[in-house]
Amino acid sequence: MEINSLLLTYVDSCKSHDVFTTKSNLDSFPFSNFTTAAFYGALGKERSLPQSWVWLLLYQMIWSLKKDNSIKAPESFFRLVSELEKIGFSAPSKFDDIVTQTRDKKSTIRGPSFDLAGLIGVNAAVTSFEYEAATTNQSKDIVFEKLITFTKYALMQCHSDNKHFILIDGLDRVLFTNKGDLSPIASLIDQSSSLNSELKVNEVPIKVIIVCRKDLFDRLPLYNSNAIKQSYSEELRWFTDARDHNKNELVFLANHRASLFLGREINIFNEAFNENIEITTSTTTRTYLVLTYILWHTRNTPRDFLMALRYIQGAHDPKNEKVTDKEIVEGLSNYAHDYFYDEIKDELMGYFDPDSIDKLFSIFISYGKYRMPTRDVIEKLEKGGFEKGTAEKMLRILFDCSAIGHIYYNEARKKETNVSKHYRAQSRFNPNHDLILHRALWKPFGFV
Fold first, then answer.
1. In terms of C-beta density within 10 A (0-12 exposed, 13-18 middle, 19 or more buried), how is residue 263 classed?
2. Cα–Cα dist 171/129, whole Å
């Protein structure tokens, strides 16, 4: 399956002969029934969920190492791979395959070996144990844990001069398929962090890399979220300075993609655009930097920025040497209607039904302008049938995804300041301050 994440695509393009990458996208992962998958037993979700993720991760590692001809591994590893293949297990193309294979197989794993017997609490004379999906829950728990223990034991003795990366993307899907329950994602990150630490201690050259939106990560029920964030993560800050093209990571990304496509180095903002754009309204004409104007229509994310450029490209007439002001305005208008509006609706779809979202948007439109009193919006929604707290939750989500911002007024300086998440990451939703809609929503809502 194609990985949509630009980061994972970049990592994959940079791999060399000594790097093995396994990409997994959770876009189609069965989150809704993952907590009741057949390889869960009587232990319940709290214990079974972490164990299940550990198995899915270990399974990916098995097949990654199997492709490595330089691997130095114990006999138990090759025996494990052989037995899994005999009963029909195969290299998965996605996590979904592992769930299906584990759920549907009846297997006999030829283990544990004598030195493993004490670890899993079986008699040293036992030379095999059965893993069968149809066994009773209690038996399934015991055998599943043995399978995990045996697999981990074999993996932790594997070494290679090569590097292996398990790349995971598509975590947003849980918002749409699991009724807002984020515990599966929290468990995945927690278990991945633990496995990475264990692999490092044992000098096994494997690492799990998970791509997660910061706003989603901040909502996860992780008891050690700050420790993971500080010690085991890297935050990507795409936006730096809209005034200096040479310091803007989004421009670098766009130029890099264009250069790969054209087969030559290119700076699209030098070759395809004029430096400034003139925007005329009914009362005035103002001049802006082209890059600044385009970025105003995005949330300073790679996806928004590249989509904005794509729509501008679609509005461009090749007969024109450079993109005209009119083409930029037309392209951004199409981008706002056909992409951005639906993108913002999707931000809410994992939490609220379509009717509730339509009611909220209707309230926005009723003001006839892109700024409005936050408390007044909440009051109107609650009078319209929203449960207390629901309206504020919706607005908070919109603020966190930068669909709305706040307006702060400095009495002393007689000056307004617009604050939004994509410019100030630490800003917080405050119902006591007026809200302002993102510029790319003005046209879909009919304000300009």
1. exposed
2. 35
Exposure string of 277-311, with b = 16+ CB inside 10 Å and e = fewer, is: beeeeeeeeeeebbbebbbebbbbbbebbbbbbeb
Could you state, in order of their start, the residue ranges of all structural domains in the chain? 6-232, 245-336, 350-441
Q: Using one digit for the tens of pLDDT, what is the confidence trace for 3-60? A: 345 555 555 555 566 889 888 888 777 676 665 543 445 455 666 778 888 888 998 8
Which of these, 98, 111, 112, lies nearest to 54 by C-alpha position?
98
Question: 323 in helix, strand or coil?
Answer: strand
**Contact between residue 438 and residue 299 where contact means Cβ atoms under 8 Å apart:** yes
- Angle at which helix 75-86 crosses helix 137-155, to 10 degrees, equals 130
CB atoms within 10 A of CB 225: 17
CA quadruple 217, 219, 224, 228: dihedral, nearest 10:
10
Cβ atoms 309, 293 nearer than 8 A: no
**Other beta carbons within 10 Å of 227:** 12
Q: How far, in Å, CA of 360 to CA of 121, rounded?
A: 58
CA distances from 144 to 79, 134, 208, 296 (A): 18, 12, 22, 52
Q: How far is Cα 340 from Cα 51, in angstroms, rounded to an integer?
A: 39
Predicted confidence (pLDDT) per residue in 403-442, tens digit = 999 998 777 656 677 888 877 777 889 999 999 999 999 9
